[in-house]
Amino acid sequence: MKTCENNYFQQKHSKEMRAVQDSMDVLNGKWKVAILSSICYYNKRRFSEILNDVEGISNRMLSKELKELEVNKLIIRSVMDTQPITVMYELTKHGKSLKNIIESLSDWGIAHRRVITGK
């Protein structure tokens, strides 16, 4: 009986670890969560607005990261029929499923800063 129980928990743990790794592969890197946070907070964002929100990111890197987020079906890129042309980014339904995670990361970051700085 113990062997069956251990095997079940081992398989469950393995599945959970694989799921965490899959999540990290999609959200990999220094910028993706910050970009998603910028878009999530305002619902729709222009390239320049995201660039201003994400401190330290270059135009080239933002463009690359946005393309990867689009490939992973987390954001939609919409070209508006304006002069000059405006490009808007918004979360997909799938991308919106990250909202609670982003909010939790934000809350944790605020609390962590307080612990580290003592304020």
Automatic annotation (TrEMBL):
Lineage: superkingdom: Bacteria
UniProt xrefs under InterPro entries: HTH_HxlR (IPR002577), WH-like_DNA-bd_sf (IPR036388), WH_DNA-bd_sf (IPR036390)
Keywords: DNA-binding, Transcription, Transcription regulation
Hydrolase keyword on record: no
Protein name per UniProt: Winged helix-turn-helix transcriptional regulator
Provenance organism: Sphingobacterium corticis
Limits of the HTH hxlR-type domain: 4-117
A UniProt-annotated Pfam family: HxlR
